[in-house]
Each structure stands twice: as C-alpha cells, then as structure tokens.
C-alpha cells in the first residue's frame, strides 16, 4: 500500500514543490496540505495520513503545538497517529529538541536534497527514526531543561535487568553493533531487546527512547 503523506507549511511555493516531489513517487500518495498548525490538526483528523511533514515556524499555531495536539487527539480517539517529520531551517537547534519532545519522529532540514527527504519519509513510516539517537542525546544535552523531570513510570519495572542494560546503552546513543559488542550479544538479540523495550514502555522508536531516558533521568 502507498504511504499517505501530508504537508504543513506556510509557504505556498514550498508546498507546491514538495507536493510535486511526493506525486512523482509510485509508493507515495499526497494526502493534503495545510498552511498553519491549526489547519494541520484538522487535516490530520480528516485525512489520517501515515506521515506528516511539519514546519515549525507558522502562524496561528506552530508546528510543535500542532504536533502535540495531533498526537493527543489521535490517542484520545484510539486512532493510529501519523509519524511526524519536522522541517527545520537549522540543524540541532532548540526547536528541533522541542519537536522531538513533543513526539516527532525526527527532523530534516528544509534545504535537504529531495532524495534525502523521500528516504526520510519512508524511514519514519517504517517505524524508524531519522535523527540518530546520538544526535538526539546531543540535542537534549544542549537544549534540554532539567526541571520537572518525572520519576520512572510503572512500566519501567517491567524491564528485565538485561533490558535495562541495553536501554542504558541505547539511551547513550550507541548503535546496535556497539551495544552487541559491549554486552557480548549478537546484533539480532540486541534488536529483539530494543523491540521489547519499546513495546513495554509504549515508545515508537529509539529517538523516543532517548527522550524517555532524559525526562526520567534514566540515562
């Protein structure tokens, strides 16, 4: 089945270019566009896209606020939420950190090559992150706020000792191969542990794992 892609940006010319790019791909379907965050919330409910490309700086409601509302409303309605890929002008800036904390699956620069943007869409749709976990950790070290960190939730207690070890290494940004070497495991076993950890904690990808670790002081 085709991946349904929606676009949110306040620049009409940019939207037209991305729409043409998406329409040129046989495995992608353009699911609609919006010019501000409030329109994005309505678009997400109406079209229920698989992936939303979300600008950050927009009138009425910015991309971070729109991301929070879209994910919250999908959860309240029992719908599968879209994977949100944030479009930003600056690499590793505070807005990127805020967007990831809000639930975005990653971010790409607005001047990225078309091939990279297409690959990013397919990557987040597959359930993976676009921003490496190590970059996410760097983001939160640079722009994170220490106040208001919450204690570990009940679900944390469901992790086995081995899963907690793997979690700690993943939260530091280590790759599967690096975790495998550190824990004397195969990469396949590491992937299995990561999948179980994400499932138990209700997380979508390793980016959210890093955010979870930071917010609960677990990494």
Automatic annotation (TrEMBL):
Location of 4-aspartylphosphate modifications: 55
Gene Ontology molecular-function annotations: DNA binding
Keyword ATP-binding: no
Gene Ontology BP annotations: phosphorelay signal transduction system; regulation of DNA-templated transcription
Superkingdom assignment: Bacteria
InterPro entries assigned to the protein according to its UniProt record, in alphabetical order: CheY-like_superfamily, NreC/VraR/RcsB-like_REC, Sig_transdc_resp-reg_C-effctor, Sig_transdc_resp-reg_receiver, Tscrpt_reg_LuxR_C, WalR-like
Keyword terms: DNA-binding, Phosphoprotein, Transcription, Transcription regulation
Segments forming domain Response regulatory: 4-125
CDD domains named in the record: LuxR_C_like, REC_NarL-like
Domain named HTH luxR-type: residues: 152-217
Protein name (record): Response regulator
Taxonomic source organism: Agromyces seonyuensis
